Write the structure tokens for this entry.
Amino acid sequence: MRTINDAIALFQAGLDAVRPENLIFDLSDLPINQPVTLLGSGKAACAMARRIAPDLKIVQSFLVSSEISGCDGRLRAFQSTHPDVTSRSLEAGSQMMDMVERLGEDDFMIYLLSGGTSAMLELLPPQIDLEALHRLNRRLLNSGASIGEINVVRKLLSRIKGGKLGAACKAKGKVFVVSDVIGNDLETIGSAPLYRDRSTREEAIAVLRKYQIFDDLPETILRYLHDSASETPDTANLNLVHEVIASNETALDAICERAAERGYKVAVRESGLTGDVADAAAYILARARAIEREKSVLVFGGETTVTVRGNGKGGRNQELCLHILQQMKASERYTFLSAGTDGIDGVTNAAGACVSWRHKCDAVRKYIRNNDAWRFHRKYGTLIETGATGTNVADVMILIKE
């Protein structure tokens, strides 16, 4: 049990390091008493606003998030939805575009951007039906496509993503970013509403063909993909300065520091783990087997994918844990944790799971076949449940080699 407790403590250290209340917002270039319009979107928007609002002279505000219960009552907040784009997302997008378009050249805007924005903030072309877009998003999420590939399609089918919101902004401003994207690509985080997008219609079509979705698309979406009006701005609005203040790397640094404090040797620290959960599990175990020293920790950051074939319940982190158990040898004494820093894994109330060699059993294969990881972890008491964390910097994976 000690290694399980240690793994959870390490995850908690990483999570604490990226909570908005612990972040530093650089306002040194903001004139004293400068009136500010405070806007934001994503899972961390309200928590970021609570942290920064006392330091600002706010004249108006609009924050879009899936969880607004803890938002400062003096700030205007709108509860949107995640992971699906819904009518709430469209209402949020319409109001946000209206707020930005009304800003003048003498105004100053601060925007708080975080993961989840892609679903929570949307504005569709008139010819695209919400239900058709909803079906397309579901297929993309279940196809095994990476978040980068999904965003290429999302941005082309939007009037707010891919720099289109930024193109409508005349004001100067600063965009503080909590990144849920490995590598912190500003063209990907939140589908880049205020930055730019150098992807093209041809790339979006290639993604849809790769995952065998293109031929089933409604005629309205096909026509819009071939219309030059769908193209996104390939240059950024120079009046809007983006600054990443927390990322997956921030969490990994804190985890490694806490591991050393607990007497572990950090043998691997690696960000950028992607791909199918079965392949990711094989890679993680191969790295662990190559390390001779005991009492070692391997720390990974990233965002894996799951191709859904069954009708069970779970998420990529919980399923990755099952693949680790399935591929672990009987002689190996490993403890493994995989969890999302937003506290949400798939459509469950868990952030992920933490398993050890003691949980290895033949039943794992059955749960994997049905994509039913959540029921396995509930049965064996291996779920990690944090609730909504108010932040999001992708996933972290921790393997402790006893």
The longest helix spans residues 2-17. The domain at 2-12+249-401 is CATH 3.40.1480.10 (glycerate kinase, domain 1).
